[in-house]
Amino acid sequence: MRTFRVELGPQSHPVHVGAGILDQLGALARDAGVGPTRIAIITDSCVGKLYATRAIASLHSAGFVAQLIEVPAGETSKSIETLSTVYDRMAAAEIERGGAVFALGGGVVGDLAGFVAASWLRGIALVQIPTTLTAQVDSALGGKTGINLSSAKNLVGAFYQPRAIVADIETLKTLPDREFREGLAEVIKYAAILDAPMISDLERDLPRILARDPAALELMVERSLRHKSQVVAADPHEGGLRKILNFGHTVGHALEATSGYGKYLHGEAVAIGMIVATRLSEKHAGLNTEEGSRLCTLIERAGLPTRLPDSHLGANLAAALRLDKKRAGSHIEFILIDRLGHALTHKIEIEALVSEIGW
Amino acid sequence: MRTFRVELGPQSHPVHVGAGILDQLGALARDAGVGPTRIAIITDSCVGKLYATRAIASLHSAGFVAQLIEVPAGETSKSIETLSTVYDRMAAAEIERGGAVFALGGGVVGDLAGFVAASWLRGIALVQIPTTLTAQVDSALGGKTGINLSSAKNLVGAFYQPRAIVADIETLKTLPDREFREGLAEVIKYAAILDAPMISDLERDLPRILARDPAALELMVERSLRHKSQVVAADPHEGGLRKILNFGHTVGHALEATSGYGKYLHGEAVAIGMIVATRLSEKHAGLNTEEGSRLCTLIERAGLPTRLPDSHLGANLAAALRLDKKRAGSHIEFILIDRLGHALTHKIEIEALVSEIGW
Fold it and tell me: Looking at the predicted complex, does its ipTM rise above 0.90?
């Protein structure tokens, strides 16, 4: 097990990454100052079947009284309707001020359960137990929680830090291939914006990673989380620096929105977005084309999509970019890289952008 | 206009109390660092009719673009259903990260709109414009926001401080008599727990206060808010000291819960709770009976109820006390006073309590 701390002043907390550590959940939570007390495990119908019994057993042996709250698997559970159901079950489970929420699952569960913890009795303890690669390397860390409205994603939420993150690498074994590859998009992103040597290491280790070798995964997840934790520690409320984590996300979000949520997984849309951002980096930020090609090749080798399907309507995507919340007047603020491992922000005129990338 | 600051470190903010200052709302918000920008005014169907036009005019003249979001008047609007409706209207109004929520109304609007501000885009600026006496002397200050579930009140919420509080004394003129008197319960509470000379001043000024003399009201509201602000500044998240603000509230909450919400206004239930707490203070905390009688007389002179109606089932109330969240095992932690102006906490055994106060 690898352990480090996210430094956030009074909200600092440990992060544990390791194979099989779900069985240490109770003890790790206690070490982080949570309970033992009456707590709720919020999970989804898929993850719950696989891991809830082990999580509960570990919590019970550490003295916790655990109530399981299961929501349907899928992004639709990040809704105010599901939130309302979870609140009612929190009330029925009599979760009190000294209690806690344990979020067992992927990004949807982490975001939903995190917001429940942030808002239950004006905030109770939260432990994140990410079980997908995307959640382990990205969404479980940083304190972003929330739900979607029908009009847009993540409009409602809170910045709320967990007391601990427990990432059990073994849970990645049961992850469908497409979801596993999706998570690699965020891993490659950290390398692209913050860590050039990590690009070489990923180029070398990719076969072992795709074969889900536990040692390779543990190393990769910890390295990704350390990068994210340093960015988050420097900018907990996304005031500035944290924006660099949006590399590939401007076009990625627009693609998700216009293709109908669900067609592309988030990481797949981000992969295409990183390809676009790389091309723009060559043109606007002086990225040398050899480095740009290495990055694109790595994305492709990870089994991620690298281009828009022919059928996709570029015009819709352009319209979505025009609506992007990072828009400032007629320009969009893009995250670009001027070399592998170093990001910067750059404003690009929307209409020029649309013609440049050929939509 | 009287102005002071609530000292909460980076969340410090000004409080303005005065007659007619609704017309300065836009300028006061700008002075507090809010906008001018696109903002939402959340209000209810009663208060909106009376004051929204003036609030909007003041905001417009200061450069704001204001969208009005009106919810039905009454406690039922502190629900997840109304919250969901408000979120949809926030999306339609395109309130962005740099935007703000202005809460124009009483405690229900302040709690609901405060939680909207806390959770919209993970937190945007909030200005409280309390228009009832209860909201002006109590609920608008302190950062408690939230909604009710069908199972219990205030289970969901956030601690979220406003950027400014603008309490226009003139709005109290239109308040129904019963709601005005309700607010006096909280005023008397501050005197009882923190400020003995304020008891004498209230005894002297009560006729002018009940006649809603603006000068008397301005003085009383400011004095109450200063007391609350000092308690909140010392304990923003209700870790200890802030508990003293619950004087009269343990029995008050139980009374509200068992009589069916709506039968007693909150302040009326607190008034009865203060009478009980005063009796318990004489018995358990050495409060001298003359001081106890002065306090009870003041509550009565304010036109507040001082006893349970005969028809009320004491057994239900006892059961509700047994469920109180401040319960620790078989004891309830009560806030008592050992003399006028000085509070302390005291644990009382529930069964002894029930027999003592004769239910």
Answer: yes
